[in-house]
Amino acid sequence: MKGFILKNWFLIALVAIIGSGITLRHQQSTSSLSEVNFLNAAAPTFASPQEEKTPRVEIFSWQNVPEDKRIQFIERFQRVAQSEMRKFEIPASIVLAQGLYQSGAGKSYASYKGNNYFNLAAPSSWSGPTGLYGKVKLKHYDTAWLSFRDHSLYLTDPTFLKSKPDAKDYKTWAKSLQAAGYNTDPQLAEMLVKIILQYDLTRFDELP
Questions:
Q1: Separation of alpha carbons 101 and 95, rounded Å
Q2: Which tens digit of pLDDT belongs to each residue from 106-159?
Q3: What are phi and psi of 173, to 5 degrees?
């Protein structure tokens, strides 16, 4: 046996090298495949807003969010909405309903990645941070509060609404947002009113 090994050592070494190379390639291939499968499984799929002047609401629907998460969203931002109502005379019910609707109760990609709860697009004049969603560039904010404040400024800009409805008239506000072309959603007004009634959001229009 020892003599056989001595006589054929070169052939044995060559077979060993080839075999180890095949094993290594197999391990590398398996490792790469596992990594691809992990990335595919781990990467969440988000609907991108359509490319509009003001993007359409993301397909990620608030109706797909558990009820307790919707309630948590309302409880989290009710004081912010009332603060915006005091300063800008926008119904807190409208602010809450639109934030819940546009952001999927805070579960949309733009809201938790960039604190953009209203899908506000980033115009060329915007100097702040942004995020690209499909082909649409949306504003990013450092805090949720900045998103709510920018939303209030957007709604009260005379170039958007020529005249503001009464602060207690949420139905007219809902219709005005749709008529002014806040986005391309043909059910915007209907859905805002539905959310307001479902969660009795008008109670927040009575400021303490």
A1: 10
A2: 988 899 899 999 999 998 899 999 999 888 899 999 999 999 999 999 999 999
A3: -60, -45
Taking Cα atoms as reference points, which of 148, 140, 134 lies closest to residue 121?
Answer: 140
DSSP state, residue 132 = E
Q: Whose structure tokens read 């859905």?
A: 191
pTM of the model: 0.71
Whole-number Å distance between alpha carbons of 42 and 37: 8
The total of other beta-carbon atoms located within 10 Å of residue 163's CB is: 6
Report the C-alpha gap between 100 and 119 in whole angstroms. Answer: 11
**Of 54, 147, 165, 160, which Cα lies nearest the Cα of 106?**
147
Q: Rounded distance, CA 121 to CA 136, Å?
A: 7
Q: How far apart are CA 182 and CA 16, in angstroms?
A: 70
Running DSSP on this structure, what letter comes out for residue 115?
-
Question: Cβ-count burial of 126 within 10 angstroms (0-12 exposed, 13-18 middle, 19+ buried)?
Answer: middle
In angstroms, the CA 28 to CA 10 distance is 27
Tell me how far apart the terminal alpha carbons of the chain are, to the nearest angstrom. Answer: 97
Mean pLDDT of 91-103: 96
| Domain 62-205 is found in CATH 2.60.120.10 | no
**SS3 of residue 131 by DSSP:** strand
